[in-house]
Automatic annotation (TrEMBL):
Keywords: Oxidoreductase, Thiamine pyrophosphate. Pfam families: 2-oxogl_dehyd_N, E1_dh, OxoGdeHyase_C, Transket_pyr. This is 2-oxoglutarate dehydrogenase E1 component. It is an enzyme of class 1 (oxidoreductase). Its EC number is 1.2.4.2. It comes from Thiorhodovibrio frisius. Its cofactor is thiamine diphosphate. The keyword Transferase does not apply.
Length: 963
């Protein structure tokens, strides 16, 4: 190969997708070489040079293409007419032009052949006219069909008649498999796919034994659905009928992955076909599924409410040629694609545990619906995570069950704006394989190619299983009401199993009696409750598995979170050294100097250093810490600085990663600008990593609104629905600072509304010592439940919100903090209960006014509510006649509605209990700072000394029963 040809083939820029750009660039070069970049100028300098007016735009591509294929430079006329200049191999310029046209036709099939592929089992719509696939569009006529041309990079003989070239292209790109990959900009990946598709012409090599097994899997997929339909008429099961090819797809995927060294496969999918997958892939005993249909299910440990059968997860081990593979099907709510980031997080944690840095041992598999994949934003957000350093999992296998109708009544024109439901996949340079679900052999080929690509290039891959839905969205639905034409075809259409059985019979690979016996055998097995999958392995034990049984389900606040003062000082000092020559920003240098004084006990500790000390103490004990969010390394409010940046080199450095050689792993991730996907990821990570502290921080507390589905469907309810434990921490900056409606409130009331059955913890710590002990408690107790923390903003640097080093070394987290000033108990006439930042506003005003008759009590843990501490406090103030709940949030927000019933003992004693705070409001805060300050001062005055206005405040005895 000439040096010129090597130049073109070694450059990823010279591909069909960039042709127009290169043409324009080359014409600019011809007019003025200095007008283009030096790198491109050097490339074009290697070409034989002509005058700018010797070549037109339409001939540029011909010339470049001919040169790329090894032809000598043709001779061009000023007007584009060719002269009879012989090329190196004797071909004329006319031949070179024809040759270039053939190469363009090959490129067109690679780019657009999928549009003429036979993908739809129902043939609902006629195939489009794709002009680029017509030889005449490229100047090739019928007389050229039998002429021999160089086949370029098309796999096969070097020279072939055009007719054979086209035939190979149609078999490769326009059969039951349509491949989209020309959008990929990495040349080795694209060439790998071209060779794989064209060398096999999109068909797998299968033995007759393999074909019979393929029919057996289709028989199983159809058999379980028919059995459930007969036995449980009208009950919802979200049938897989019409998409039965999913079962052989998954079986092939698992066996091939096991062969390639994958040891765990974690699957996320919505409800369509879930019972089929549980039965025929994971080996869930059929009698267990039947019992769920019949309502004969006992709740497992940790479950209180349970869930419908098509949301439940399962785990098992199956045998493969290279050893057992652990399969996990994640629990999933009906919010369809929300499982995507959760599975990715679980996979990342498992990979970390195995030290699987490139995803060679743990594989994520996500099974999507067509409309959900196109329509739900969490899909895009999760894809955006796929190649990032701290959220990537080495590539995900995506399978889209494309029933061409989406939910219930959808018309494809209304479900998306893109040609395919998978077009969002192109954003991550992933290949997309559209395959006809009625051609199971093509499905097997697509599966093999997709998995091999993922394992080789560590990128996401997408198999679009184009099929149909034989029944309605659920079995009680009548889809023909809204889709009469589609369902007229479906009623007349044979199943994939019927079609493939007939195909084997026609080719002599199977007899009709054997096909019928196969169905009868499966029916017998399922009716007798036998496991119908490949052999399921039992009693598999490995150090890579997590034992959740060691964690208690019983709530307890008892936990010693202190540590020896000397050890604490030692950890603090180890947080401070920096690499040689590391230049801090002046503001950070000031913070570092203050931390040195704090570590030595010469200055009171602020929130940022206390938080870092909590992480350091856990890391020093060997526990990993993972902190994620949009600005977590530094901290949105410039307080954390767990990751610092050298002003000279730009390098970053995490002191928490350099405490000791045997410490736990620490990572602070400045994530993509996503809440839903990132929080879902971290939740999934925490469900698979109980021995490490996993935290997600919202940039502002109300940013968590964008992840409300994760909070509702997983964080708050997964324990009671599915018995899942999780120790995830959510850090939500909260506090009304006069900065407007947004970024003021973390919506504390929403989390409190979700509280029940000790499902989550909701805390509002107000001192550095409190956050230190709270974070340590989350790991040191044998208890794993999500922790929601309303973290401060202005308090991060408040002169009163500080703690002594001894406060961190001793004691533990206090769910309730009684009056801290030495006030004479007999003079107390009013007790104010509050939570959060407003405490310091009340405290400063009380000091200013020198009041000794008002006590202030902080409730730092709002759920589970500290009943015993609260009762003891009430006993201390039994002589007091007036009690107040004070909050800075509006009356219909904050903690009031969820805290007021706690004062019932006072009501029974005839005491007065009042609410003081802002009146009910549709927005969390006002938009003008002056109004905010006026409101804040008014509620402080009223709480400390003012006359209670019944028109502005609810007396507790009228609302306390709303519990």
């Amino acid at each position: 190969m000439s040096a010129l040809l090597e130049l073109f083939h070694d450059s990823s820029a010279f591909n069909g997708g960039n042709a127009a750009f290169i043409e324009q660039l080359y014409e600019r070069y011809l007019r003025d070489p200095a007008s283009i970049e030096a790198d491109w100028r050097a490339r074009f300098d290697a070409l034989p040079r002509r005058a700018a007016d010797d070549i037109g735009h339409q001939l540029t591509r011909v010339r470049l293409t001919a040169l790329q294929q090894g032809y000598d430079n043709p001779v061009w006329s000023p007007h584009g007419a060719t002269q009879a200049a012989p090329a190196r191999d004797g071909t004329s310029e006319f031949s070179a032009t024809k040759q270039a046209a053939v190469l363009r036709l090959i490129n067109a099939y690679r780019s657009r052949g999928h549009q003429l592929a036979n993908l739809d089992p129902l043939r609902l719509r006629p195939l489009p006219e794709v002009a680029d696939l017509e030889p005449s569009q490229h100047g090739l006529l019928d007389g050229d069909l039998d002429r021999t041309f160089h086949s370029g990079s098309l796999y096969g003989p070097e020279r072939m008649p055009l007719r054979e070239i086209i035939d190979r292209l149609k078999r490769s790109y326009c059969g039951s498999l349509g491949c989209e990959y020309m959008h990929i900009t990495t040349t080795p990946e694209k060439r790998w796919l071209q060779k794989r598709i064209e060398s096999y012409q999109a068909r797998p090599e299968l033995t007759n034994k393999a074909r019979r097994w393929l029919l057996q899997l289709l028989t199983a997929a159809e058999g379980i659905e028919q059995h459930l339909h007969r036995r449980y008429v009208g009950q919802k099961r979200f049938s897989l009928e019409g998409g039965e090819a999913l079962i052989p797809l998954l079986d092939e995927l698992i066996q091939r992955a096991g062969r390639d060294g994958i040891r765990e496969i974690i699957i996320g999918m919505a409800h369509r076909g879930r019972l089929n997958v549980l039965t025929n892939i994971l080996g869930k005993p059929p009698q267990d599924i039947f019992a769920e249909f019949e309502g004969k299910v006992a709740l497992k440990a940790g479950q209180r409410a349970g869930d419908v059968k098509y949301h439940l997860g399962f785990a098992t081990d199956v045998d493969t040629p290279s050893g057992p593979v652990h399969l996990v099907l994640g629990f999933n709510p009906s919010h369809l694609e929300i499982i995507n980031p959760v599975i990715q997080g679980s996979v990342r944690a498992r990979q970390r545990r195995r030290n699987d840095r490139d995803g060679s041992q743990v594989l994520p598999v996500l099974i999507h619906g067509d409309s959900a994949f196109a329509g739900q934003g969490v899909v895009m957000e999760t894809l955006q995570l796929s190649q990032t350093r701290s959220h990537g999992t080495g590539g995900t296998m995506h399978i889209i069950i494309n029933n061409q109708i989406g939910f219930t009544t959808s018309n494809p024109l209304d479900t998306r704006s893109t040609l395919y439901c998978t077009d969002v996949a192109k954003m991550v340079q992933g290949p997309v394989f559209h395959v006809n679900g009625d051609d199971p052999e093509a499905v097997i080929f697509a599966t093999r190619m997709a998995l091999d690509f993922r394992n080789r290039f560590k990128r996401d891959v997408f198999v679009d299983l184009v099929c149909y839905r034989r029944l309605g969205h659920n079995e009680a639905d009548e889809p023909a009401v809204t889709q009469p034409l589609m369902y007229r075809k479906i009623r007349q259409h044979p199943s994939a199993r019927t079609l493939y059985a007939q195909r084997l019979i026609d080719t002599g690979g199977l007899t009709a009696d054997a096909a019928e016996a196969m169905m009868a055998d499966y029916r017998h097995a399922i009716e007798h409750g036998l496991v119908v999958t490949r052999p399921v392995l039992c009693d598999i034990t490995t150090s890579q598995r997590t034992n959740w049984r060691r964690f208690t389900d019983q709530w307890t606040t008892t936990c010693d979170t202190g540590m020896a003062l000397a050890s604490l000082r030692d950890v603090g000092e180890r947080l401070l050294p920096l690499p040689d020559g590391f230049e801090l920003h002046p503001r950070v240098a000031k913070i570092w100097a203050e931390r040195r004084q704090m570590a030595a006990g010469e200055q009171l500790i602020n929130w940022g250093f206390a938080e870092n000390l909590a992480y350091a103490s856990l890391l020093d004990a060997g526990m990993p810490v993972r902190l994620s969010g949009q600005d977590t390394g530094r901290g949105t409010f410039f307080h954390r600085h767990a990751k610092i940046h050298c002003q000279a080199s730009g390098d970053d450095y995490s002191p928490l990663q350099h405490l000791s050689p045997d410490q736990g792993a620490f990572v602070a991730i400045d994530s993509i600008l996503s809440e839903e996907a990132v929080l879902g990821f971290e939740y999934g990570f925490a469900t698979a990593e109980p021995d490490g502290l996993t935290l997600w921080e919202a940039q502002f507390g109300d940013f968590a609104n964008g992840a409300q589905v994760v909070v509702d469907q997983f964080i708050a309810s997964a324990g009671t629905k599915w018995g899942l434990q999780c120790g995830l921490v959510m850090l939500l900056p909260h506090g009304l600072e006069g900065q407007g409606a947004e970024h003021s409130s973390a919506r504390l009331e929403r989390y409190l509304q979700l509280c029940a059955e000790h499902n989550i913890q909701v805390c509002v710590p107000t001192t550095p010592a409190q956050i230190f002990h709270l974070l340590r408690r989350q790991m040191l107790r044998p208890y794993r439940r999500p922790l929601i923390v309303m973290t401060p903003k202005s308090l991060l640097r408040h002169r009163l919100a500080v703690s002594a080093l001894e406060d961190l070394a001793e004691g533990g987290f206090q769910p309730l903090i009684s009056e801290c000033d030495p006030l004479p108990a007999d003079k107390i006439e009013r007790v104010i209960f509050c939570s959060g930042k407003v405490y310091f506003d009340l405290l400063e005003e009380r000091h200013t006014r020198a009041l000794e008759n008002v006590a202030i009590v902080r409730i730092e843990q709002l759920y589970p509510f500290p009943k015993e501490d609260f009762a003891a406090t009430l006993a201390d103030y039994a002589h007091v006649g007036e009690f107040i709940w004070c909050q800075e949030e509006a009356q219909n927000q904050g903690a009031w509605d969820m805290i007021k019933h706690r004062f019932q003992p006072l009501i029974r004693a005839g005491k007065q209990v009042y609410y003081v705070g802002r009146p009910a409001s549709a927005a969390p805060a006002v938009g003008h700072r002056s109004i905010h300050l006026e409101q804040q001062q008014r509620l402080i005055d009223e709480a400390l000394t003012g006359r209670i206005n019944p028109s502005m405040n609810h007396h507790i005895d009228r609302v306390a029963q709303v519990a």
